[in-house]
Amino acid sequence: MTTSLSRALARVTGASLGPHQTALLRIGLSFTWLCYLLREWPNRHELYGPDAPWSWRMARELTGDNHAFTALMWSDSHAWFETVYVLAIVFSALLMLGWRTRTMSVLSMLGVLSLQNRSVFIGDGGDNVVHLMALYMVLTRCGQVWSLDARRAARQAREGADAGSKDVPGVVLWTVCGLGLVLAQLLGDDSMSWTGEGPLPGLSWPVALWGLWAVQGVWWAVRRHAPGEPRAVLDALAHLAHNGALVVIMAEVCLIYATAGWYKVQGSRWQDGTALFYPMHIDYFSPWPWLSHALAASSLVVLLLSYGTVAVQVAFPFTLLNRRVKNVLLALMMAEHLGIAVLLGLPFFSLAMIVTDAVFLPTSVLRRLEGVRRLPSLVRRRMGTAASCPAPRTPAEEGADGPADGSTDGSAAVPGPGRRTVG
Predict the structure, then answer these.
(1) Helices within 266-374 (DSSP H only)
(2) % helix / strand / coil in the chain, to the nearest 5?
(3) How far apart are the first and last CA of the chain?
């Protein structure tokens, strides 16, 4: 018992599990949020800005009651809104690329909260998923693979340079973030009060943000000046936080599907198998009316899709006990969300759910994707090698230029026992 416990503790503190899964989560959710912000750029003023039906004063009154964080409540000026919206786009793009993922995960989270909490009545389930996962990703080490940080770390390892010894851009970014926190304390609203509500009960937003900022500074100082046991302790704590956040993310996905499935079971339309018939005839959820109507015309198809949706959602948390069944059901759930994206016109909701489902993908599958990603570079390398090799010479060309060994008597050199020929 003691041996098993110590082995489990060593596993959760010795490495950050699921590096490919968390990297895919980082890339996918950032890409989803980035595409949404870019698509809604012409409508940003009506959604989150000064022209929104949910006015700035109404949003300020609501956030005063529910203590939700949004930087848009710090000022009602047009310029401040444009600044926050553009910064949300920039932070999402940098997090997707994996540049300074520890810092960008926090800044991207603040961008998500600032916009979504400004107008809480225009979101859907996909926005809720992005909202929750943005909070959880702050605690993950989601830049271990498929990121600019990973490439920089690999390059420094090849060059024999310590990752924290010459990190001038990181120090500058850390300083700028500190100055930004000071300005937020001076210009912010009640959400930046030390005694206010925050991401956790009893933890205000200033305490949380200044704590993350201080931890980043301690991390850099330890890596630079104390690379021994203090660094090992910080690594173990980082592994523990990452693995704990990963478990919470997986539990959240199971909770989403379990609650959705069991609530559907209680609905009479789901019980008689006709639930999907009705949204297929709503114009707002029918981007391809001919396709929706063609599927809805078959009662058997509607019945199978309705029952299949409920069965997959209810059964998924239980399939985690069997890897093969889980992988089959995972593929069915992703196909279900692709169908929702096409039939009901909810691409961002479907993409957010597919990305969160990908947390359960086997590492072997993600490694194959990594191999596909490296295929163009391998092809270019092979082509470069082939181009650098001389083409084989024909006998006619060799006769015109003389013997291959450089003799001038017109006789071909006969290779001896110890000689090698280039064929």
Answers:
(1) 268-271, 289-296, 299-319, 323-343, 347-357, 363-373
(2) 75, 0, 25
(3) 66
CA distances from 217 to 109, 170, 209, 357 (A): 20, 10, 13, 34
| Rounded-to-integer distance, Cα 366 and Cα 399, Å | 55
Q: Residues 171-198: pLDDT tens digits?
A: 999 999 999 999 999 888 888 888 888 8
Distance of CA 300 to the CA centre of its chain: 37
Residue located via tokens 């698509």: 39
Residue matched to tokens 């786009």:
89
Is the CA virtual torsion 153, 155, 161, 166 positive or negative? negative
75: three-class secondary structure by DSSP = coil
d(CA 325, CA 19): 23
Counting beta carbons within 10 angstroms of the beta carbon of residue 306, is it exposed (0 to 12), middle (13 to 18) or buried (19 or more)? Answer: buried
Question: Please, what sign has the CA dihedral across residues 207, 57, 110, 84?
Answer: negative
Assigned token pair, 423: 């064929």
The secondary structure element, H or E, covering residue 255 is helix 229-265
- Within 8 A by CB and 6+ apart from 230, the residues are 222
User: C-alpha dihedral over 402, 408, 414, 415, to 10 degrees?
Assistant: -80
Nearest to residue 258, comparing CAs of 187, 316, 215, 180?
Answer: 316
- Give me the residues of the chain with pLDDT under 50, please: 163-164, 391, 394-423
Which residues are CB-contacts of 165 (< 8 A; sequence separation ≥ 6)? 223, 224
pTM of the full structure: 0.86
